[in-house]
Amino acid sequence: MSCRLLLLTILCLAPSIPARGEDSSAKKDRIFKLFVEEFVPLTPGEGKFPGSFILGNADGPDTEKPATKITLKKPFSMARYEVTQELYEVVMGKNPSRWPGPRNSVEKVSWDEANEFCLKITNQLQERKLIGADEIIRLPSEAEWEYACRAGTKTRYSFGDDPRLLGDYGWFAGNAQGNDPPVGKKKPNAWNLYDMHGYVWEWCADTWHPTVAEIPVDGTPRQARDAKERVLRGGAWSDDADKARSGYRHHKPADALSDAVGFRCVRAKK
User: Fold this and answer.
1) What is the pTM of this model?
2) Is residue 115 part of a domain?
């Protein structure tokens, strides 16, 4: 075989060289635009959005008492999904997650890191004019979180009272084993918010208090001086169905890292 023919044969049999992928700047722009597009506007007191709701449960555990009427004063937008790993990585330059996947929920993020993420992405979105100069990205208050999770319902879950239906709406101990899903694989609640029940616990802005007593009734976060623990909501893939209830309250130290803890963002006026 001639040298020329041999070269042609090698070239034909060799795998094709992949096209150059998007550069880091284009990737960041794409991910940021998608993040902004996925926010769901909530306007308490207008249209289908009630102005008030009952946070907690008079018949529940002490951590959910006393049931308290909350009247939210300002509109806000809730992220349709928990923060994904690809989004966290382009903002923070790292991916701490145990269960990797670009559109999987990020986990093993502390409360402080979640707040750092919110500050950094606010600045970067403002620089790109993807949000207004008077807008910020932040963690939800506990009241905002439960309001959004309930989606106007008064039942144990946003879909009713039957825990046997939870598998249609969230990842929990009853169906998570062997699955490593991207966000949004289950059904959303009535306001088109996904994974409010299960998948990963979500940090809230509030400091932890063992009861609902004295929680701000205007929907703002509770901030106690020198508190070391922060509120978590929603349940996780490793928990039973009860912990995925709309009103279930949980807590961890602000520096806690767990593969069952992530977060979701709010977009709101300063």
Assistant:
1) 0.91
2) yes
